[in-house]
C-alpha cells in the first residue's frame, strides 16, 4: 500500500474518531444538564437522605471527570448503562427496539429509491419540459412538507376516512405502509433533486455525444453511460440519508405509535432518563461514523479515481 494511501486512510479514521468523541462528549454534557434524575425517580417529596443514597448508587456524587471517564470506558466496552425508568440494560432495550426502526427505515428508503431515482432521471432527460417542471415541483414539495403533518394527513385520509389501512402500531405488513410512505417523502425528494442535477451534468459530457454518435440506444446511453458516472453523489446521499432516517425517526414513530428507537427516545426524554438518552445518542453517533466510513469504502470501489 502506498504511503499516501496510508496517510489518507489514517487521516480519515482519525477524523471519524474525533467526530465520535465530540458526539459522545456532547451526549454526556446534555445528559448532565437535563436535571437531577433522583427527583424524577423518587419524587419531589423524597427525603434528602434517600436522594443522596440514590445519587451514590448511580455514581452521581463522583467528580464529573471521573463520571466522564467511566462513561467513555462503558461506551468502548459495550456497556451503555442501565435505564433509570425501566430498570433494564440500555443495550438490550436498544437491541429490542432496533429491528422495528430498521424495518421502517428499510421500507422508507426502498420507496425513496424506487421513486426518486426514476423521477430524477426523467427530469434530467426531458430538461425544460413540463415533465422536468412537474418532477422538480414534486421534489421541492417533498422537501418542504413537515413530516409529522404529512403523516397525520395520511392517517386522516386512509385510516379514518377510507378505513383502508391501520392508523398506527405494528404487526402486519399493512401497518408498515403509512409509516414507510411518510418516512420516504423527504429522502425521495432529496434523491430526485440530486439525481436530476447529477444526470444533467453527466448528459452534457462529450462522451455522451460520442456514445450517441456510435448508434448506441438511448436507454443504454442514459443508464449505462450517464447514470453510472452520475452515481457517486447519489450513492453518498443514499447512505447518509439512511443514517439520518435511522437516527431521526422520532416524528414518524410518534405519529404512528411505532415501537422503535424514536419512541424509546421520546419516553427517555419524558422521564428524564439521561442514561437511556445518552445510550440512544451514542448509538446514533456510532451509526453516522460507520456510515461515513462505508461511504468512503463505496467510493473507492465504484470510482477508480479514488483508488
TrEMBL record:
Organism: Micromonospora matsumotoense
Cleaved signal peptide residues: none
GO cellular component, one term: plasma membrane
Family of the protein in this entry: Belongs to the binding-protein-dependent transport system permease family.
Domain ABC transmembrane type-1: 98-299
InterPro entries: BPD_transp_1_N, MetI-like, MetI-like_sf
Biological-process GO terms, alphabetical: transmembrane transport
Membrane topology field: Multi-pass membrane protein
Key word Oxidoreductase present: no
PANTHER family reported for this sequence: DIPEPTIDE TRANSPORT SYSTEM PERMEASE PROTEIN DPPB-RELATED
Alphabetized Pfam families for the sequence: BPD_transp_1, BPD_transp_1_N
Protein name: Peptide/nickel transport system permease protein
Statement: the UniProt record of this protein carries the keyword Transport: yes
PROSITE patterns, alphabetized: ABC_TM1
Ranges that cross the membrane: 100-124, 145-164, 176-194, 234-256, 276-298
Amino acid at each position: 500500500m502506498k504511503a499516501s494511501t496510508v496517510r489518507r486512510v489514517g487521516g480519515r479514521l482519525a477524523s471519524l474518531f474525533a467526530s465520535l468523541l465530540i458526539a459522545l462528549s456532547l451526549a454526556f454534557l446534555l445528559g448532565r444538564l437535563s436535571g437531577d434524575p433522583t427527583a424524577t425517580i423518587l419524587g419531589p417529596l423524597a427525603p434528602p437522605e434517600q436522594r443522596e443514597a440514590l445519587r451514590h448508587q448511580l455514581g452521581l456524587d463522583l467528580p464529573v471527570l471521573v463520571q466522564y471517564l467511566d462513561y467513555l470506558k462503558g461506551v468502548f466496552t459495550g456497556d451503555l448503562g442501565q435505564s433509570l425508568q425501566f430498570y433494564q440494560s440500555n443495550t438490550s432495550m436498544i437491541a429490542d427496539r432496533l429491528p422495528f426502526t430498521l424495518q421502517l427505515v428499510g421500507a422508507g428508503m426502498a420507496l425513496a429509491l424506487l421513486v426518486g431515482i426514476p423521477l430524477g432521471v426523467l427530469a434530467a432527460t426531458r430538461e425544460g419540459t413540463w415533465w422536468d417542471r412537474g418532477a422538480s415541483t414534486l421534489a421541492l414539495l417533498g422537501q418542504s412538507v413537515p413530516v409529522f403533518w404529512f403523516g397525520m394527513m395520511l392517517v386522516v385520509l386512509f385510516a379514518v376516512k377510507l378505513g383502508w389501512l391501520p392508523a398506527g402500531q405494528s404487526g402486519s405488513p399493512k401497518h408498515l405502509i403509512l409509516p414507510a410512505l411518510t418516512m420516504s417523502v423527504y429522502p425521495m425528494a432529496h434523491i430526485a433533486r440530486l439525481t436530476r442535477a447529477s444526470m444533467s451534468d453527466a448528459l452534457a459530457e462529450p462522451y455522451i455525444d460520442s456514445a450517441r454518435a456510435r448508434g448506441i440506444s438511448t436507454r443504454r446511453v442514459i443508464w449505462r453511460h450517464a447514470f453510472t458516472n452520475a452515481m457517486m453523489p447519489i450513492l453518498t446521499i443514499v447512505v447518509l440519508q439512511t443514517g439520518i432516517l435511522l437516527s431521526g425517526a422520532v416524528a414518524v414513530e410518534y405519529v404512528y405509535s411505532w415501537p422503535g428507537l424514536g419512541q424509546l427516545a421520546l419516553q427517555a426524554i419524558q422521564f428524564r432518563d439521561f442514561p437511556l438518552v445518552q445510550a440512544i445518542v451514542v448509538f446514533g453517533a456510532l451509526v453516522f461514523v460507520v456510515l461515513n466510513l462505508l461511504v468512503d469504502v463505496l467510493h473507492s470501489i465504484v470510482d477508480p479515481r479514488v483508488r
